[in-house]
Amino acid sequence: xxxxxxxxxxxxxxxxxxxxxxxxxxxxxxxxxxxxxxxxxxxxxxxxxxxxxxxxxxxxxxxxxxxxxxxxxxxxxxxxxxxxxxxxxxxxxxxxxxxxxxxxxxxxxxxxxxxxxxxxxxxxxxxxxxxxxxxxxxxxxxxxxxxxxxxxxxxxxxxxxxxxxxxxxxxxxxxxxxxxxxxxxxxxxxxxxxxxxxxxxxxxxxxxxxxxxxxxxxxxxxxxxxxxxxxxxxxxxxxxxxxxxxxxxxxxxxxxxxxxxxxxxxxxxxxxx
DNA sequence: CGGTGGACCTGCTGGC
DNA sequence: TGCCAGCAGGTCCACC
Length: 273
Description:
Number of helices: 7
Helix content: 10-25%
Order of helices and strands: HEHEEEEEEEHHHHHEE
Strand order of the largest sheet: 1-6-7-5
């Protein structure tokens, strides 16, 4: 579900609600996520004060003044939001942190593909989930030139490359498809066959599409909700994703769907070469 | 080494 | 109406 813009939307929504709040209670109702939630570790958050939230790739990092950071990944269907304590439980509500103001930070995840770990704040970089992540799309070190150079000997299709978090962090299926459309690149094109100009177009397109989506509050197709339970409005701006059979906005062709690495890819066979 | 395909888990949709 | 295959926005690992 959530890619970089959705996770960033959640981060921005949660930040003012969580910053400065003390964790007064921790309840793990269902610890069987993608990896087990360690109740002993979670309990150590009790008494700590949340000092801020960061995002790295599709991970959220909730920092505390206790030297501990709560690492959260939303998987495909994870939701994280702040609720009044009296509110009825939602389906699949697995973890609840009660806050000093009486409200609650709640985590729900129907498919349980998400993940939640308590880490030492000064050792985050060493954690296996964070260690091998590639540069953030908005990192100035990521340039068309840098991508051109790291892809010279590789045969992977450019779509798969974009979704590889070791190459670039935070890009999932929707934004990979949308970026390639805007850059005019065929999703099956091998990365070593993309020239300097292509990587420049791709880098520009990637940042534009992510920026626009963040501004719209992310894409809600099925399960995405922000920190207040609201939806994102970028779905109407998608030009190829989930538009198989539709007329291309730029030419007379029809949007196609193919499967790459077991995932749907949507593209315009005429605009993307 | 690099790349592909299957596995994890639940819920919804569309076709019969 | 009811059933079931197919599909879903992520990531890891075994295997070639």
